[in-house]
Amino acid sequence: MNELQIEIAQVAARLIAEEGWPWSGAKQRALRELGLPPRTALPGSELVEDMLREHLALFQADTQPAELLQLRRLALRWMERLECFEPLLTGAVWRGTANRLSDIRLQLFADDPKAPDIALLNLGVQAEAGPEPASPRSGREAHSLLVWLPPPQGFAQPVALLLEVLDPLARRGALQPDGRGLSLRGELSGLRRLIDDTAACP
Fold it and tell me: What separation, in Å, do the N-terminal and C-terminal C-alpha atoms of the chain show?
């Protein structure tokens, strides 16, 4: 790690927190803002996450924790609605770096990749093709839909709910921690604990 990598990560973190940029796009945009060549080595996700936590603590400490709690409650409702697909929550809402501009990312597991579509239709929801393709390892589909937080906690804009459909075998080992001992995703019980712990704090 060097000072340039830290500077790139800091700019990327600002773009993520203040403008809702996706992580990969934020890194590339940071290079342009800093006037760096396109082939400049990019910081790793762990460094960007560290800088993002610092940015949120410095500039959004009065709003981000409450926004994160509302997003986690919204994620919980959708995980409960789709419980038959053993959903896992991943991304910023799980990791604790989400704010009102963040999306909710769920991984669903089904032998039939179309089964979640049918379940959503039965719930009266029409899913659309996701803004990002399914990961190469999944060979499955990704969908997205816009959902609203109910008042009075609601945001001014809807929240993007991104659903990735994976083979059930992909769930094995999915809850293993990363190199720093932090989990990359969590199941219903883990999310309930996070919400309960946060709500219990004064």
Answer: 37
